[in-house]
Amino acid sequence: NGHLTFDAPWSSFTPQRFPIHGSRDIIAPFWTDLDNRQNGQISYNQYTSGSVLRQATQDINQYFPGLNFNADWVFVATWYQVAYFSASGAVTQAVLISGGQYSFVMTNYGEIAFTQQSVQAGYDTVQSTHHFSIPGSFSQNATGEFSNFRLSSNVHVPGRWAFRTDRGSRGPLYPTSGTVSSAVDDGSSPQITLLRPFFYFGRTYNSIYVSHYCPSCADLWRPTFISADELRYNSLNNTEHSGKTYCS
Q: ω before 175 within 30° of 0 (cis)?
């Protein structure tokens, strides 16, 4: 939920800290438990001409000077006001940009409602040969009014992070229009054929999946909450609660 994968769909709604040292490439603008059945929509679009390519060309040449870059393809995935599981949500984007031998990933952040859920943002590759965790991941500063994702940047544009991946509009958001991923899709969009190959740290991909809520996964795990009184009672009686989440 809130991530992109290339070889196959992946509906994991529990974020893992980067580096994972796993077997998949992943781009995670906002990996947490999201539920687009509650609110918001998830959309994606590809561009091979027009104003979005001009914007991408301008942005990349500003952030990575000296490349004389010219974008010929842009893929934009938007999670627009998508709810956290049983709560309000956030506005996030992943933007993939290619031109010639160069490829880039941008993550954009709009309003991000507060949640106590963990969030991982950044990217990770097979066996974590390349990885980056955006500051604020797995912290209390990930969401809310003072979200570090929304207020910080590595390219001097608050709410935007940009990375070159081929080797080792107004505000930060690109246009949010495009094919809407159905809320009834089980954990992921259908396979999306990319209009241009995307180079991701030594590998080339021709398709992508946009993740979201997974109904068939939802019943596999649910936290069990125990009151503070019960916790104190069980502690006094040495009662173990393996696999349960405690809260007051």
A: no
If asked whether residues 228 and 171 sit together in one domain, one would say no
Q: What pLDDT was estimated at residue 242?
A: 40
Take residue 104 and report the two structure tokens written for it. 């880039």
pLDDT at 236 over 60: no
Task: Tell me the residue range of the domain where 244 lies.
Answer: 219-248
> What are the C-alpha distances in Å from 125 to residues 176, 185, 188?
26, 26, 20
Distance from C-alpha of 17 to C-alpha of 106, rounded to nearest angstrom: 19
Instruction: Tell me whether residue 232 is exposed, middle or buried, using C-beta atoms within 10 angstroms of its C-beta: 0 to 12, 13 to 18, 19 or more.
Output: exposed
Check pLDDT > 60 for residue 66: yes
Say yes or no: 234 and 188 in one domain: no
Number of domains in the chain: 2
Is residue 41 within 8 A of residue 80, CB to CB? The reply is yes
Give φ, ψ of 128 to 5 degrees: 55, 35
